[in-house]
Design goal:
Chain A is built from 15 helices and four strands. With 347 residues, chain A is mostly helical. The radius of gyration of chain A is 22 Å and the shape is globular. The longest helix of chain B has 21 residues. The chains are: A mainly alpha (347), B alpha/beta (257). The structure holds adenosine-5'-triphosphate (ATP) and magnesium ion.
């Protein structure tokens, strides 16, 4: 039986058109992102930085959980390790920002590898509990190792400096955030064009057959933990330098849960989904409270029950999403894109 | 002919249940070696022992003269043990092409850092791999038109073929195939039989084949091993085995085969 009546050659693959179109739109997007800070107000700039820093963390978690299938409830703690590393290196050792940044990632990756160690034996819920333990232990350390972490008061730091250029406002910081987002997203995409990314997906889909296909399960699970927490560490470093302070309350268990919700809403196993999820989870709560704020102005008496509604509405939104589009925002986006297909390069 | 694979006195048990009892056989280089037997005879378990997914309670496994009994499964794959599965085990999160590429895992070098960076060595490796797969596997198995599809959308027969493609990408010296034509129609079965013969003859790959389809076994295999309740019943040429009274008895009362 022959499949198909003509012989497609892989060179044609219509790849030429697809890349021309996506290059065009990526170019436009990049230009818009560069223009954005010049037109955006303080509030939008603040939100954009926040979203960007969150995107890096979400991409990291999606690599581990969405692509490699290892559920983690400790992501916030890894972000915390990065944040504290950055703050301690900057204040105690006076290391320049560009050294602190990769070291924060490496330190978080180191912790990620330790926590990921049992992942060969622990699967699913059991691994989830192990990462939960890591989260709680690290939280405890952030609070109680006062001589190093500054306890509940935390550590304050001065704005980062890159090659003599001080990033002392949200406008300047935006360009750092943007550069790091592009770097991390590109690196993540790259990974999934190689055997390393394929091995992650194979482990997620069927780890027994993955091993028989030649994949060293332990090594690749640890790789997934390492890359994921490295990005968490970078995100933590950027976050702490952005707020110019680090305290334990930035990295609670709830934050780990929020990151999981992010990649589920955005789309598990999708880099683009991580971006959508991070933006959604940053902007939507703000939008809800803005709308509620307006309502309170009109109906002052409703104040007492409108404000607690925020969390409920947000939770409901997530549930509605999962019911109607379990593959997340990335899937919705794919459908929109298919609808417009190769525009503007068709024919 | 030199032997490429030897199973020497292997026993396997799950809890109290003995699944394989003192099984020994040799597979010669370049032959199609069939394993048959009723359901639950221990055929799949035998492949799993060879692959390193199960560890024998007793006995040894030799590959090209070296004892691999204690070698990890992934290292055995790298040595040249390819595998297809009775219940298709493709990765549904990947395209057909990526599934096939995954088979080549042990022959690639890209590490974590070069993968994140991609440009340069990793890119070159991917391009070379793509070319090799297109030329040696996709053309050969006639799956050009589905290479970019997601495997979950494929018909059963095609999924089996993609699994074979992935196994070929492993560049195996010995290919372990667990019921490659189960559930296929006559035409698909014939295609698969032809592919298996081509793989043996043109690529000089040794094949260990589990199958319930007796006609196919008789047509293409060089030697046949018969298992029953974890015991080795007999072994010989397809003709000898077919006439063996114990084999006839074991298959009696069984529709299959
Ligand atoms: N992981 C396992 N745990 C417990 N029992 C097992 C396991 N794997 C196989 N068995 C048992 O071992 C016996 C042999 O199974 P095996 O899958 O090797 O049979 P088979 O010859 O491949 O049969 P079939 O033709 O149905 O595929 C069966 O009784 C099966 O239930
Ligand atoms: Mg079987």
């Amino acid at each position: 039986m022959r499949i198909g009546h003509f012989k497609e050659t892989y060179v044609s693959d219509q790849a030429v058109f697809a890349t021309a179109t996506s290059r065009f739109w990526l170019g436009i997007l990049f230009a818009l992102l560069l223009l954005f800070p010049f037109v955006a107000g303080d509030y939008l700039l603040f939100m954009a930085n926040l979203a960007g820093i969150t995107i890096i963390g979400a991409v990291g978690l999606n690599i581990l959980t969405g692509f490699a299938g290892q559920i983690s409830l400790g992501h916030a703690a890894f972000i915390g390790v990065g944040g504290y590393t950055a703050a301690i290196l900057a204040t105690r050792f006076n290391l320049p920002f560009l050294i602190c940044l990769p070291l924060s990632g490496l330190m978080a990756a180191f912790f990620g590898i330790i926590v990921g160690g049992p992942s060969l034996r622990l699967k699913g819920l059991y691994l989830c509990i192990a990462t939960l333990a890591a989260q709680l232990i690290l939280e405890f350390v952030f609070v109680h190792w006062e001589s190093v972490t500054g306890g509940i008061r935390g550590i304050n730091l001065s704005p980062p400096e890159i090659c003599g250029y001080v990033l002392d406002n949200d406008f300047k910081y935006y360009f750092l955030t943007l550069a790091m987002v592009i770097l991390c997203v590109t690196a993540a995409r790259n990974l999934f064009r190689t055997r390393v990314g394929r091995a992650f997906i194979a482990i997620r889909d069927r780890d027994i057959s993955a091993e028989l296909m030649g994949i060293n399960l332990l090594r690749y699970k640890l790789y997934a933990f390492a890359v994921s927490s490295f990005m968490a560490g970078l995100s933590g470093c950027l976050w702490v330098n952005f707020l110019k302070t680090v305290t334990p309350e930035h990295f609670p268990l709830m934050e780990s849960v929020r990151y999981l919700a992010m990649i589920i809403v955005g789309g598990m196993g999708s880099i683009l989904g991580s971006i959508f999820g991070a933006i959604f989870m940053t902007i939507v709560p703000e939008a809800i409270s803005t709308v509620l704020g307006l309502l309170v102005n009109t109906f002052p008496t409703a104040m007492s029950f409108l404000f607690p509604l925020q969390q409920v509405i947000f939770g409901l939104l997530i549930v509605i999403f999962l019911v109607f589009e379990p593959h997340g925002l990335a899937e919705i986006w794919r459908r929109i894109k298919n609808y417009f297909h190769l525009w503007p390069f068709e024919h | 002919m030199p032997k490429i694979l030897s199973i020497d006195g292997v026993s396997l048990a799950f809890g109290g249940l003995e699944v394989l009892s003192d099984i020994s056989f040799d597979v010669n280089e370049g032959e199609i070696f069939a394993i048959i037997g009723p359901n639950g005879a221990g055929k799949t378990s035998t492949l799993n022992i060879i692959n390193g997914f199960y560890r024998p309670k007793k006995g040894k496994v030799f590959f090209q003269g070296t004892d691999i009994t204690h070698l990890q499964a992934d290292k055995r794959a790298a040595l040249g043990l390819g595998r297809t599965f009775q219940n298709i085990a493709l990765y549904h999160g990947m395209s057909v092409l990526d599934n096939i590429k995954l088979g080549a895992h042990s022959h690639l070098k890209t590490g974590l850092i070069s993968g994140l960076w991609y440009w340069g060595a990793a890119h070159k490796e991917e391009m070379a791999l793509r070319k090799e797969i297109e030329k040696d596997i996709i053309d050969f198995l006639e799956i050009e038109s589905i290479r970019n599809q997601s495997v979950s959308t494929l018909a059963y027969g095609l999924q089996k073929r993609v699994e074979l493609a992935r196994a070929l990408a492993m560049r195996p010296k010995v290919l372990l195939m667990d019921e490659p034509v189960a559930g296929m129609n006559a035409e698909e079965t014939e295609d698969m039989a032809r592919f298996i013969l081509d793989i043996k003859e043109e690529r000089n790959i040794t094949i260990v084949l589990i199958e319930h389809d007796m006609k196919m076994i008789m047509d293409i295999s060089d030697r046949v091993l018969v298992l029953n309740f974890g015991y080795k019943l007999t072994q010989g040429s397809p003709r000898e085995v077919q006439k063996h009274p114990d084999v006839i008895k074991a298959y009696l009362g069984q529709k299959k085969g």
